[in-house]
Specification:
By secondary structure, the chain is mainly alpha-helical. It contains 3 helices and 2 strands; from the N terminus they run αββαα. It has 2 domains: 29 residues, no CATH class; 47 residues.
Length: 84
């Protein structure tokens, strides 16, 4: 059983509501937002963040953009072959 301060949970719910990630319906509970545009926007922001991190880390290892493209192509081809 996790011990979490109720104030922390309440703050997290307020922040998620302010970001329109969830919506609270009085007497019914709190639900993940059904706003597809907002969800798509969040997904894009997360993808950009991951991509920025990946490129920065690969750059720190000395890889160039063309190296990354080749590695990604090889990876995706192997994954597609594995999935078949």
């Amino acid at each position: 059983m996790a011990r979490v301060n109720p104030n922390t949970v309440q703050r997290a719910y307020r922040e998620m509501e302010a970001m329109h990630m969830v919506e609270t319906l009085r007497g019914q509970g709190t639900f993940v937002s059904a706003d597809q545009e907002m969800l798509a926007r969040m997904k894009e922001e997360m993808a950009q963040s991951i991509l920025n991190y990946f490129v920065a880390e690969m750059d720190a290892l000395g890889y160039q953009g063309s190296d990354l493209i080749k590695m990604l192509q090889d990876y995706m081809q192997a994954k597609e072959a594995e999935d078949q």
